[in-house]
Structures are given as structure tokens and as C-alpha cells.
Amino acid sequence: MSDRRPEERLARVREAVGRATADWLLVPASADFRWLTGGRARATERLLLFALPRTGAPWCLVPRLEAEALAAECPWLELEIWDEHEDPLARLA
Length: 93
Hints:
The protein is of the alpha+beta class. It has helices at residues 6-19, 31-37, 64-73, 88-92; strands at 24-28, 49-53, 59-63, 78-82.
């Protein structure tokens, strides 16, 4: 991982989002997720993604089963936790 702090990486990516005239960047559990957040996210059948708006605070949509571990690794990151009976895409919208 780079020596840059997450804030610096997020600022650079946010600038790129603005240049692309996008409103959001959504990143699933992946190496990119780890690079942006510093946290490990398991890629499973449950939707987990990092959301970086062009303006405003980033957050993460995370299944309840993964929330505790991610909160420990990324205490700075707001988590939008979804339960098994919910539709995570509806929560994302």
C-alpha cells in the first residue's frame, strides 16, 4: 500500500470523479477498495461497496455480517449496514 494517507487518495480520486462529470464512484470489494479505504472487504455474494460522492462524505454499504470487521479497520468510514431481509440496491438508491 502507498504511504499516502486515505484522505490524500480520496481527494485525488474525488478530483477525477469531478473531471469525469460523474456524481459518484462506487467501488466493490476489491484491491481498489483496499487502496481507497485501507480496509479489507471480502468479495462474496452479498453486496459491499464503497461510495465516494463528488461532494460530501464517503460511506460504505455493507452487510451486517461484515460490518463489525470493517468498522474496526476503517473507523473513519460511515457504514450503511443492510440486513439479510433487505434489498441492498434499494438501500443504495
